[in-house]
Every structure is written in C-alpha cells, then in structure tokens.
TrEMBL record:
This is Triosephosphate isomerase. Its main location: cytoplasm. It comes from the Bacteria. GO terms for biological process: gluconeogenesis; glyceraldehyde-3-phosphate biosynthetic process; glycerol catabolic process; glycolytic process. It comes from Gordonia otitidis (strain DSM 44809 / CCUG 52243 / JCM 12355 / NBRC 100426 / IFM 10032). Substrate binds at residues 12-14, 180, 220, 241-242. Homodimer.
Amino acid sequence: MAGTRKPLIAGNWKMNLNHLEAIALVQKIAFALPAKYFEKVDVTVIPPFTDIRSVQTVVDGDKLLLTYGAQDLSEHDSGAYTGEISGAFLAKLGCTFVVVGHSERRTMHGETDEVVLAKTKAALRHGLTPIVCVGEQLDVREAGDHVEYCTQQTSASLAGLSGDELSKVVIAYEPVWAIGTGRVATPDDAQEVCRAIRGNIASVAGDEVASHLRILYGGSVSSKNVAEIVGKPDVDGALVGGASLKADEFATLSAIAAGGPLP
Ligand SMILES: O=C[C@H](O)COP(=O)(O)O
C-alpha cells in the first residue's frame, strides 16, 4: 500500500445475517474499533439488502465512522425490473459503496463484463463508489494467463469510463480459486496482479488517476495474512468474506490494516 492511498477494508457478508444479527455485528465492530483507527483505515460493511436500513439506523444513531454498502445493484434506475434494486434506493439509504461483478454473480448469475460495466455506470450515476471485482479461475492461473486475463477483464468492465469516473472506482482483485477456500494467494501473487491492473488504468487514464486508485485483494483474507497482503505496494486493502462475519476477527484485521495497535 502506497502512502497516498488510505487502506479500505470491506466486509462482504454475502447471504449471511438477518437484520437483527446485522445490528449486533455492527455494534460489536464499532465497539472494538474506536475513532483513532479511522484516521488510518476506512472500514465498511456490505450486508444483504434487507439489513441495510437497520445498519443505517445504527450508524447514524450512534454516529459511527464505519460506512456501509450493498452487494449488487441494477443497471437500471427504475421501472419494471422485478427483484432488482436501484442505485437510487441505495444512495437514499446512505450507502457509500456497492460491490459490482463479484465472481459469485459473474458465475451464478451470468453477469458479463458488459453487465458489470452498466452496473458500474449506474453506481456512479447515483454517487455510489463501485467496488468492481475481477479475478481469474484456477485453470487460467495454472496456465499462467492470470495477469492478462485480469487486465482484460478490468478493461472490459470499465470500458469507456472517463478519468474522472475511474477516479471514483475501487477495484477488487479476487482470484476465484482463493474465495472461501482458505487457499489465499501469496502476497506476491496479489501484488503482481494489482500492479498490472494499476498499470492498465494508467495506460487509459494516466498516472495521476492510477496512483490514487484503490485496488483491494480478496480471497481468504484473515487477521493472520492481512498484514503481509496490504503491505504490498499496490494492494490498498481487502474485500473480506468469511472473516467479516466475526466482530473480533474483522476488527482485528481492520486494526492491522491501520498499522495497529490491536484492539
Ligand atoms: O467478497 C469477498 C470475497 O469473495 C472473499 O471471500 P472469503 O474471504 O470468504 O474468501
């Protein structure tokens, strides 16, 4: 992580925790992370849609410094799209971030780079910060094509965005083979791809935009490995799945990303 970029720790709860459990978890995380940590790290939680209003109430009521977001949004703003959620609704609920193109949505819901791009544009239209996910499958990694694959996926998922728009995006590199498997990429693996993604952004938007862009790593991040991963120069934080569901663990890894001390 370079000095000019503040690390971001984002806890993607996936389809876990109801709204009552969400309130309890947010309160525990907040209790474990007093204000001093937020000078050095941004911490956000990404609960299911049905929890967001409850999380908003706790964050606003207790004036918490952690932010929150959503796991997906519609590429459309309103209309006959049953089951979809507009970015306008998320903005109204005070969301800061929205995850776009997570590999679970790309794989299970057939989201293409074109859909990811449309959703990224929708997020930006509504003043949300998209966390755009890219990452290779195991066969791509084993063939040694992961760098090219991820830079191409990044280009296609962000195609045509202006430098100003790109400066409002967060990218998350999540090798699919490391998600939920306990098989974490090495810090050097994460650095290799994050560096290439930054270079790719620099080639289309210039060094200034690229040098301010936050690029996260995701895939089996925990308090045991986060220090080494975010210690790499082009890795600016983590998108955390399983370890974000336990308050102590999530607070500890956030504190480590802040440079300590442990809570
Ligand atoms: O969005 C988070 C990632 O999919 C990582 O999940 P994980 O930390 O459970 O491997």
